[in-house]
Amino acid sequence: MLWLRSAAFNLVFYAASVVIVIAATPCFLLPRRYTIRAMAAWSHMTLWLLRVLAGTRYEVRGSLPEGGVLVASKHQSMWDTIVMTAILNNPAMVLKRELLWIPFYGWYAQKARMIAIDRGAGSNAIRRLVSQGKAAIAEGRPIVIFPEGTRSAPGSKLEYKPGVAALYRQLGVPCVPAAVNSGLFWGRRGFARKPGTILLEFLEPIPAGLDRKSFMAELETRIETATGRLLAETGGNAQPVENQPQASL
Q1: What is the pTM of this model?
Q2: Around Cβ 189, how many Cβ atoms within 10 Å?
Q3: What sign does the dihedral 87-91-95-100 (CA atoms) show?
């Protein structure tokens, strides 16, 4: 039954996504807000399909971040980016530049003014990240960044990258940590979409003004502790496993 429901979801999801992205192409000629609405509608559709076809629900805990704040989230699944687009108001997602090369997805991301970073550009990438971050904050948009720079399996922990610290220090805004257990239900790789309830928890904000070392320690402790708790609550592995460091923001 799991594989049948997963197959139904994947088939409908990809087919509907193709239809939606093509039907929404007139948004490229319209003001940016129409692209934002189209992306949010696609995200809501995906969450609905997950619930109806795969039996995968979700629960959001804590207060939704609003306005110009920095949101730093654990990243276990594609689901994480989908839900942030659905529940936050006009978020500026930090993503790797290679995603802009994907037809339609990349075009929509550029139109929506997401923050695309060349992870191999070193200090230039950090400067560009901060510059785009300041523009997003000036517009009152929440910035969403995944501090590990890529998806990690449930129970594992990657090195936290310097990009999140650069944004925190240069933007001078609070940082809202977020924890998820999404990898238990929608894995980094694989076909299955498992039934159950994905938990996303927004934690208490870290106020602006901490030094880099204190901020990074506090951010990592909060995210990893809360993620372990959510995994334990749903029967996952709550013990972090150190992975090999990966070069990224």
Answers
A1: 0.90
A2: 6
A3: positive
Cα–Cα dist 232/181, whole Å? 9
- DSSP 8-state code for residue 69: -
Coil, helix or strand for 182? helix
Task: Please check the confidence at residue 43 and state whether its pLDDT lies above 50.
Answer: yes
Quote the pLDDT of residue 125.
Answer: 87
Take residue 21 and report the two structure tokens written for it: 């992205």
| pLDDT for residue 56 is more than 90 | yes
Alpha carbons within 13 A on the beta-carbon side of 173: 25
* Residues in contact with 209: Cβ distance below 8 Å, sequence separation at least 6, in sequence order: 172
The predicted pLDDT at position 236 comes to: 56
Tokens coding 126: 């950090």
- State whether the Cα torsion 20-23-26-28 is positive or negative: positive
Average pLDDT over residues 89-104: 90
Q: What digits encode the pLDDT tens for the residues 218-236?
A: 999 999 999 999 999 987 5
DSSP secondary structure letter of residue 104: T
Those residues with Cβ within 8 angstroms of residue 202's Cβ, 6 or more apart along the chain or in another chain: 60, 61, 62, 63, 64, 65, 71, 176, 177, 178
β-bridge pairing 241-242 and 143-145: unpaired
